[in-house]
Every structure is written in C-alpha cells, then in structure tokens.
Design a protein that fits this description.
about 210 residues; single chain; 3-stranded antiparallel beta sheet; alpha/beta; globular
C-alpha cells in the first residue's frame, strides 16, 4: 500500500515536533526512518497508524485519506505482553485459526523464541519480550507494518535473526514496512530506502545501495 504525507504537522503543547512537506512510501518496500532520539520518528509512525491525529495536512493510503480498516499494525518500542504464555501471545495476532498454532510456532522459531512457547510472557526479559512482540506483529499479514525501534532491547546475537525475519515477511506478504532506528548499519541491512529525519523535518531520502542521500 502506498502512503503519502502532504503538509503534515504535529505539535505537543505548542512545541512543533513534526513538519513534513511531502513524503511518499512506495507499496511493498521496507523503509528505515533514521535519526537521533526525540526527532519525530515515533510521532510519524503514530500518525500513520492513526493512533494520533496530525494538526494539519493529509495522510493518504493508496490515494484515500481514510485510514484503511484493519490493514495497519503498529509495534511499539516497549510492547505490551498479555498475561498468557508466549505461544498464546502470538496466537492473538492470527486470524486463520486452522493453521494458527503452526504459524505461531514458525514465527517464534524465526525470532529464536521457540523454546519459550510454554513460558509465561511476564517472566521474559525485555529483549525476549520484544522478539515475541515482533513475531506477534508480523504474523498478522497486514498491508502496512510499522515498527518502532524493533530491536532496541534485543541482544546482539539475536538481532540479525530478527532482521532476516523482517525481510522474509516483507518478501512474502509484499507489505509496506516502515521502521525507526538510530542505527545506520541496521538501516542499510534491512531497508530498501532510508529516510533521514532531523528536528521533525526530512533531511534526506535515498536507496541503500546508492551510498548517499538525495
């Protein structure tokens, strides 16, 4: 699904945090929104997800300014774990109940959490919970997938596994994925295109293979 932001602005208590004149995300690609903390990355995702409303401007989804019903999934940086087992948490994201267990176990295997399927989610470390949340998010098969710092708490040895899973799901589902990060090397590894944001404004955009930004 193609996403366009035109003249989108957002402020909190009179303080501008986002000012985007024009920005487009092409259908089926992975985009990294790169920039330091507090620069508006998360706010952009929240506006696209419809969690918050922009003060002005328009956001279009395949040319329509209405948020597509049940086609967007948003993973917060500190995800919530329900008081269930790891497997049951992932099952919550699956519509097709016929193959739900098989899909959930496969997703947990991809992020290196298969051995935890019967553990209570509340006993997990922050990084383990984040990996479960990634599995739960990506099995939803939504057309728009928004990931806020998806590996911020994940241990170094597991980061590449998570990155490979993100790429795999994008290739299979053809979803439009947007993830935020402050790690330039991660953006290079996962994204088709990188968007640089600074003080709420777009400072550059380019394909990762270019080695530079427009």
């Amino acid at each position: 699904m193609r996403i366009e932001l035109n003249g989108v602005k957002k402020s909190y208590d009179g303080r501008p945090v986002l000012d985007i004149k024009k920005l487009e995300f092409g259908s089926g690609k992975i985009y990294a929104v790169l920039g330091p903390n507090g620069t508006g990355k998360t706010t952009m995702l929240r506006l696209i997800a419809g969690i918050e409303k922009n003060d002005s401007g328009k956001i279009y989804y395949d040319g329509d300014d209405k948020l597509p019903d049940k086609q967007v999934v948003f993973l917060m940086q500190k995800p919530y774990m329900f008081d269930l087992t790891v497997l049951e948490n992932v099952l919550l994201g699956i519509k097709d109940r016929r193959m739900a267990r098989e899909q959930a176990i496969l997703a947990l295997t991809q992020v290196g959490m298969k051995e935890f399927i019967n553990e209570k989610a509340g006993t997990l470390s922050g990084g383990e919970a984040q990996r479960v949340a990634i599995a739960r998010t990506l099995v939803t098969c939504k057309r728009i997938v928004l990931l806020d710092e998806p590996t911020s708490s994940v241990d170094v040895s597991s980061v590449r596994k998570v990155e490979e899973y993100i790429r795999k799901v994008n290739h299979e589902d053809k979803s439009t994925m947007i993830f935020t990060t402050h790690d330039h090397s991660q953006a290079d590894r996962i994204a088709d295109e990188i968007i640089m944001i600074e003080c709420g404004r777009i400072k550059g955009k380019g394909k990762t293979e270019d080695g530079f930004f427009e």
